[in-house]
Amino acid sequence: MKKALSIVLAMLMPLTCVTGAFAEAETETEKTVKSAADVIDMANESADSEEAAAEEAYLQQDCEFSVIEADESTGQVKLSYMEGITPILEVDGLKFKDLNKNGTLDVYEDWREETDTRIADLIGQMDAKEEVGLLFCVNTQLADARYMVQEYALTCQLFNLNGTPITITNTLNNLQASAEAERLGVPMVFTSDREYNSFGGYIDKAHEGFGTANDPELAYELASFYGKAMRAVGIHVTFEPYANEIGAQYGENPEYIASIVHEEIRGLEENGLASCTKHWIGRGGDSSFGNARSVAQNFDNWMVGWEAALSAGSEWVMTNCGGTGISNTVDVKWDKATMSYLRDTLGFDGVVVSDWWALGGGPNNPGRMTGITSEGVDLGEQTIGWLYNEALANGTDMFGSGSMYHDYSDWESSPSSNYPDAIIDGLESGEVEKANVDQAATRILRFKFEKGLFENPYCDVDAAVELCASAEWAANPTEITNDEELRAARNPYEVELTEKLQAESAVLVKNDNNLLPLAKDAKVYIDGSGSTALEGYKKYIAEMGATVVETMDEADVVVGDYGTINDAAELFIEDAQDAGKPIVLTMNNTEPTAYALENADAVLYLSYSQAADHGSTEGGFVTGTSPWIYVDLLFGEREPGGIINKEIARDEVSDNDQWKDLAGDQGASPYVRLMVQATMEDDENHASPNNWGDPLVTYGFGMSYGQDPDFQYSCLILPTVQITEEVESGSSTTTQTTLVNETKAGEPFTVYALLRNNGADGFTITQAKANGEVVAEKIMTVEGGSWRVLQMDLTLDAGEYTIEIGDLVGTITITE
User: Fold this and answer.
1) Which of 14, 137, 393, 400 is most buried, taking the most CB atoms under 10 A from its CB?
2) Kind plus residue range of the DSSP H or E element containing 683
3) Bridge partners of 711?
4) Whole-angstrom distance, CA of residue 427 vs CA of residue 407
5) How far apart are CA 343 and CA 328, in angstroms?
6) What is the DSSP letter of 77?
7) Which of 207, 272, 181 is nearest to 233 (CA)?
């Protein structure tokens, strides 16, 4: 960079010598100098870019580390280390790493010692910078990743970068080598927002798919593989799962949420990958925990998923950022009640890391942290040192952010960053208590020691490739350019599980006249919003034996694949209707809407997405259901096996009225909602009844090919009024009251009926007829063996009417 800068300055020297000759000349010179300054900036950027590329290439090169294998006969544990950086000591016939390079076996280097003894010795040797460096986790940026280790004694990085098992493993090994070279040789911990990042940016866990598949065993099998693969490439912690909140990706049933979360964490943890369940106490789902709380202030049902996560062995927990907790006042890090519930009531003694924006309110509220605690403390008036100290005292151990700086004089303008010097200076001034820092450092170091990272921090590239990739790709690691090549490169076992999840997470929501599966000799017109996927669909439809046609008029059936119901999707549907063709509509990673269900003959909801969680997804790949699996679903080679795991509202108003800390109350009246609430209070572990409210689609609904519903209507209820008349009987007169079906003209009234389904899960559009004319329609989904209350609002002119709902008939008088 200096060379590039000096060349540009040499070019500029003649220009700057003429400055000030004449006013006009000065103006021209200013323009020239300004233009030259731009050239300098461009040169600097180019040089910086070259340096970043060189650093990335350095980190991705092979990391040659040495290994001393374990020996059961002597008790020797496996050691991996960098020759020339870490000497090896031999004591009592056993080998140890001299991490601090002092020629003596220190207690923290002695793997025979108890963990807490080793921790105490290491903390005793640390200066303030080294100990405080443990308390931060910052995004890995390859250009400055080693610098962050050296400058801030940083020993935790968030790795959301892309690559193959080869490049990722090499990168993390080389960063471990950088940490090993530091004074005390404290190993790195690498975290990731992604649950599966061995082929980083190509495929990640399908969050919604885990929920709609309704298969805890499959969740366990996938998580188990993910855990092995992530540890194989050098990642130690995944910031997953984050669907244990009501209304998040795993739905609304606390018992079901708990079953998926427990099995997922069990799979991750049994292979050495630590799960970091997030966000305490709730940021995902329909709303943050604080915003979700209704007048009922529900809490116990939210805790069911959390208790399952901790019982399954989640080693880390991430707090939400800017969201309130139990006290409904401030961010949970400064809410003693919320943090005490985690630490004391639930007994969690693992690592608690803040979400990013540790000192601010998050991306939607980017200013510094504010609010009044339940003790009356105004966070907006507190210093940065006080905020760090109080968060540590309440039980936070580590602070996450995208960047770190020494100078914290203007920290309020950038609360998304972290400032370790504020803690270092606070220790010196007394504003930050050493005991709080020691407590956090102890938890973090315990994790590192118990994971064996002080002894064996490096990962074998060949072993990582053998586990994560196919034998063919391992033998010839070629560039991956399309979906078929990606499939061929991955471990066949993982591919099989993933493709099973794709089918099991697909939900059949409507299937009039058993339109699906399609006949294999069908003429198919297909369109959609993704060109890459669309070309794949056409290819595999043709391979199925069907004919892909160019116009709707030629087709037997038209298929639309859309990620939203936009103008293009509506035009597609209108054109198909004009052409008189049956419509299969795929809602790809977007929930079915009333419009879609009203206008398509068959609706398939695909919830699967393998797009990278945080960071970038590699371009040119299908991130949703693979084209060959999608075509298998269309033609019945595979069957959709998923369920709607979160009831879908009829409209935005209804959705806003729902209590987000409850379930099963979409479209419910206040009376019914309180009944749902009471049922939940009786047993917070189980799902509320899913057929008491009035959603568009109920929780648990999912149709199957070839299985039909059997709908039965009963109990038609029409509006009534009391008619009182006097009846003479002999010498006496009595008053007689009768009920008649009657209401006023021009005013909406509601009719009710009981809709029971004695067959398989099914969809119907119920019609209300008045004197044979359809006056209202309503979409109803009913699970097999269940029932729903049908309510329809009608408005009629004055007259006598015969009302028909299904096969039910009643009469009513509409008066002026």
Assistant:
1) 137
2) none
3) 757
4) 16
5) 18
6) P
7) 272
pLDDT along the chain (816 residues), means of 10: 34 33 36 44 61 90 96 97 98 98 98 98 98 96 93 96 96 98 98 95 94 96 98 98 86 91 97 94 71 89 93 96 87 95 98 93 79 95 97 98 94 94 98 98 98 98 98 97 96 98 98 97 93 92 97 98 95 98 97 97 97 91 96 98 96 92 93 95 86 96 98 97 82 83 96 98 98 98 98 97 98 96
Structure tokens at 343: 């630490």
Could you tell me how far CA 193 lies from the centroid of its own chain? 9
Residue (of 186, 212, 223, 14) closest to 108 by Cα position: 186
Q: 643: closest CA among 570, 704, 719?
A: 704
Which H or E run contains 781? Answer: strand 773-782
Other CB atoms closer than 10 Å to residue 474's CB: what's the count?
A: 18
**Omega before 517 cis (within 30°)?**
yes
CB 314 within 8 Å of CB 269? yes
Is the CA virtual torsion 643, 646, 650, 651 positive or negative? negative
Tell how strand 351-353 and strand 602-606 pair up: unpaired
- 189-192 and 156-158 strand pairing: parallel
Residue partners of 341: CB distance under 8 A and separation at least 6:
326
The residue among 182, 298, 161, 307 whose CA lies nearest residue 234 is 161
Closest CA to 754 of 712, 801, 726: 712
Whole-model pTM over 0.85: yes
Spatial contact of 616 and 200, defined as CB atoms under 8 Å apart: no
Residue located via tokens 């099991």: 504
Q: In whole angstroms, give the CA distance from residue 223 to residue 238.
A: 11
> Rounded to an integer, what distance in angstroms lies between the CA atom of residue 570 and that of residue 558?
13
Expressed in angstroms, the distance from the first to the final Cα of the chain is 88
Which H helix or E strand runs over 472?
helix 471-475
Rounded to 5 degrees, φ, ψ at 331 are: -50, 140
How is the beta sheet containing 711-717 ordered, strand by strand? 711-717, 749-757, 787-794
